[in-house]
Amino acid sequence: VLRFWEPQQYFVVVGYSNKVEREVRRGACKKNGVPIFRRISGGGTVLQGPGCLNFSLILKADRSPFLRTISQSNRFLMENQKSALQPLLTLPVEIRGATDLVLNGKKFSGNAQRRKKSFFLFHGTFLLDFDLALVEALLPTPSRQPAYRQNRSHENFLTNLPLSPEKVKEALKKIWSATQNLEKVPSPQIKQLATTRYCDPNWN
Fold this sequence. Notes:
Blueprint: E1 2-5, E2 11-14, H1 20-23, H2 26-31, E3 36-38, E4 46-48, E5 52-60, H3 70-85, E6 93-96, E7 100-103, E8 106-115, E9 119-127, H4 132-138, H5 154-157, H6 165-175, H7 187-198
Parallel strand pairs: 2-3
Antiparallel strand pairs: 1-5, 2-4, 5-9, 6-7, 7-8, 8-9
C-alpha cells in the first residue's frame, strides 16, 4: 500500500524514542499554536506543514530478500526512491546518512521504518515548498545527527525539491507499481488509533 498526504497546518512530530524537552522548542511551539505529536517509528524530530509531501509505504517483509533486516531494507528502499526521482532532476540525487535523500549536500527527504512480523511500514517526507526558517524557530539542533550534517543549522542543512507534488507522486507510484486504488480503507480503525493513542497527551 502506498499512501500520500499533504499537511494543511503546522505540527511537530518526534521520533518514538525522542525526548520532547531536548528536541523541541516547546515554548516557541506553544506561542505559535504548533502541537507536538509522537510517531511509532524511529528517527529524528521534524516539523510538518504546508509544502511537505508525505508518503507511507507498507510492504510484506518477504517481498524481497533485501527486506529481511533494517539495514538491508533501508538500502533497498532508498535506492528505489532515488531511482524514481533522478530522471526528473538535473543534479545528482544522493543517499546520505541511513535514510536521507540529498541535493548539493542538502537534505530534501527524511525517512523511517517500523517493522512487524510479516509487514513493515516505511514512511517519509519530501520538502517541496516548505518554510525552512520556521524549522529553525521551532526545533533546536538535534541531539543526534548524521556526520554529513556537520552541525549546520536547519536552514543551511535543508532544501526544497524543485518538483511539484504531482510529479513526485507519479514517480513513486511507478517505482512501487502502485497502479490500483485501495478499495477498502480501514477508516474506523484509523480514527480509533488517532483518538486512543496518537492524540493522547501521555503518548505524545
